[in-house]
Design a protein that fits this description.
Pfam families: Amidohydro_1. This is Amidohydrolase family protein. The protein is built from 13 helices and 19 strands. It has a domain at 57-374: Alpha-Beta Barrel (TIM Barrel), CATH 3.20.20. It has 460 residues and is an alpha/beta fold. The protein has an 8-stranded parallel sheet. Bound molecules: zinc ion. Zinc ion (ZN) binds at residues 61, 63, 316.
Length: 460
């Protein structure tokens, strides 16, 4: 027997250890792991001396071509491929009407899923979708079964903005989420508290971005999380708190995990590596919601990632231009920042080089846990039989991040000028290289839609 590829002499990073081992790839899957002498002959041999061999990163929170974010699938997933990300979950937005809407009329969740699948045809990486419920229309419950049949086994809800849902409706969604055994993904900020504080800052003329964090404080995030998690627990629904930014909100998730549990949460690379001083240094560029917090929150996020209250690190990638961000008043800025291309090197550098965590910790937070949490059964590991999504990563190479390298349509980086040690050298998706030494080497459309199974949170 001959296999397609053997990657030899590298150090494999699994969720719990480092392994000096070779890895054989055949037909898009990982065929075997072991001493090279025990592996079958291969058509191609790659010498990974000095490199870490990681599973492809699974990013469960991205915004690409769908609502506001400027990135097309080709641009956004090129950035992902260059950053070692091989799978992502984007959003299928139930169309609504209103000031923040891009649609002329309301649409259904199932239509949104079909629309986004279609848009994803130029994807370079494998992608899936969360269904975003934006209106309090119980008709959505009648299409849930069909949405799940399309491989969309998670729904997202907001507690803020005009798409924010009332607790009563969220509670109702949880009932169906529990019934269908899928996952509810929540953006939690108490809208009334945020609105009051925003109005006060406006009245006081505090228009510089340095004031922005005061408009969406940590307690507003924690309050809304508290209500949502409590309802999820009462209904028996699986709950996933996205972009947890603060110690207070992470504490809430941890508290509700005592029963052992249906509560999980993520934070994002930027919340662990930047703090609110970035609004002084970069003006509106890092404006996103919730805001960047304090150095103490960063420390707490790492503690909670380590102890399990949080278990995933994502990007919340959202592409805007510097022009979109250059505004007189912070409240006129677009919200969000791009991060797909830099997330792995920036988080790796922070976690491993600056804070002393092991590369396995990075693999748990960015590969294994997101895959397991969202039902990507073939992703996030180097286990034989799963997809050969592999990143060759040089832990010793240092470089300086600059937006000049961006594949995203976004023309700035919130990490501009940051020197990191650790660089993505090559990214494989299902056995084929898609990015090599900073260049895209696959054709748009190589990435496929992944129909996800109902996530099993019992099987750890
Ligand atoms: Zn987001």
């Amino acid at each position: 027997m001959t296999v397609d590829l053997v990657i030899a002499n590298g150090t494999l990073v699994t969720p719990d250890r480092l392994l000096d081992s070779a890895i054989a790839v055949d037909d898009g899957e990982i065929a075997a792991v072991g001493d090279e002498r025990t592996l079958p002959a291969a058509d191609e041999r790659v010498d990974a001396s000095g490199l870490l061999v990681l599973p492809g990163v699974v990013d469960p929170h991205v915004h690409i071509d769908g609502y506001l974010s400027l990135d097309t699938y080709e641009a956004g997933t090129s950035a992902a491929a260059l950053g070692g990300i091989t799978s992502c979950i984007n959003f299928a937005w139930e169309a609504w009407t209103g000031d923040l809407s891009i649609w002329d009329e309301e649409g259904t969740l199932l239509e949104a899923v079909h629309r986004q699948k279609e848009k994803g045809q130029k994807s370079l990486i494998d992608f899936s979708l969360h269904g975003a419920i934006t209106r309090e229309d119980p008709a959505v419950f009648d299409e849930l079964e069909d949405v799940i049949d399309e491989g969309v086994t998670s729904v997202k809800m907001f507690t803020a903005y005009e798409i924010g849902l009332s607790n009563g409706f969220i509670d109702h969604v949880f009932e169906h989420v529990a019934d269908q055994d899928i996952v509810a993904v929540l953006h939690t900020e108490d809208a009334s508290v945020c609105n009051r504080l925003e109005a006060r800052l406006k009245a006081e003329g505090k228009s510089h971005p340095r004031h922005y964090p005061q408009s969406r404080p940590d307690y507003a995030e924690a309050m809304a999380a508290e209500s949502a998690v409590r309802m999820a627990q009462e209904q028996g629904a699986k709950y996933y708190g996205i972009h947890t930014t603060s110690e207070k909100a992470a504490d809430v998730l941890g508290r509700y995990q005592d029963d052992g549990s249906r509560v999980r949460g993520e934070t994002c690379t930027q919340y662990t590596t930047l703090d609110e001083s970035a609004y002084e240094e970069q003006d509106s560029l890092p404006i996103m919601a919730p805001p960047l917090r304090t150095p103490a929150d960063q420390d707490a996020l790492f503690e909670h990632l380590y102890n399990g209250a949080l278990s995933v690190v994502s990007t919340d990638h959202n592409a805007f231009t510097r022009a979109d961000k250059t505004v007189e008043n912070w409240w006129d800025s677009s919200f969000g920042a791009n991060g797909l291309q830099t997330s792995l090197p920036v988080f790796y550098d922070e976690a491993v080089n600056r804070r002393g965590y092991s590369p396995s910790f990075v693999v748990r937070m960015m590969c294994a846990n997101p895959a397991q949490t969202f039902g990507f059964t073939e992703k996030g590991t180097l286990d034989p039989g799963t997809d050969a999504d592999i990143v060759l990563f040089d832990p010793d190479e240092s470089y300086t991040i600059t937006a000049a390298d961006n594949a995203s349509i976004s023309d700035y980086s919130i990490y501009e000028g940051r020197e990191v040690t650790g660089r993505v050298k090559r990214t494989y998706l299902r056995g084929e290289p898609i990015a090599d030494d900073g260049e895209i080497v696959a054709d748009p459309g190589y990435g496929e839609f992944v129909a996800r199974e109902r996530p099993d949170w019992e099987a750890e």
